[in-house]
Amino acid sequence: MVRVIIPVHGSEVAPRFDLASEVWIGVQGPDGRFMQERTVVMPQASTENLCQLIVSEGAHVVVCGAVEQEYFDYLVWKKVTVYDDVIATVDAVKKALEEGTLKPGAVLLERILEESEHVLGPVDSPDS
């Protein structure tokens, strides 16, 4: 079984590791599907407390947004696989982990265009 921790902001991966006040914790079964999941509210946003939680929970994988190199190195030293710079919802991360397709730097959010935004396409030249 693989224990996964994601610092979250609402339903998305927290953009900054050090400012996350909630953490999603899930356990993947042998078939890759998540069998258990829960959310923990941190008493305050703290990188040290978050690292302590990750180690005490025995996490194998951490998925996060931006993380300082010092804490990234610490977690890797603790033999935690860190997928950093991920922009996604928790559900998108779960799906990518189940499919084995998650990579550092993954952007798994779809952009919803407002009506006032225009999508620029190729401009037709007067000669065509």
Describe this structure in words.
The model has no long low-confidence stretch (mean pLDDT 89). The N and C termini lie far apart (60 Å). It contains 3 helices and 6 strands. It has 128 residues and is an alpha/beta fold.
Share of β-strand residues = 15-25%
Helix count, per DSSP?
A: 3
- Fraction of residues in helix: 10-25%
Question: Main beta sheet, described?
Answer: 6 strands, mixed
Structural class: alpha/beta
Work out the number of β strands.
6
- Mean of the pLDDT scores? 89
What is the structure about, briefly put?
It contains three helices and six strands. The protein is an alpha/beta fold and 128 residues long.
Label this structure with key terms.
single chain; 128 residues; alpha/beta; 6-stranded mixed sheet; 6 strands; globular
List the helices and strands and how they pair.
Layout (H helix, E strand, L loop, with lengths): L1 E8 L2 E2 L8 E7 L5 E8 L5 H10 L4 E3 L5 H9 L3 E3 L6 H10 L29
Parallel strand pairs: 1-5, 5-6
Antiparallel strand pairs: 1-2, 1-3, 3-4
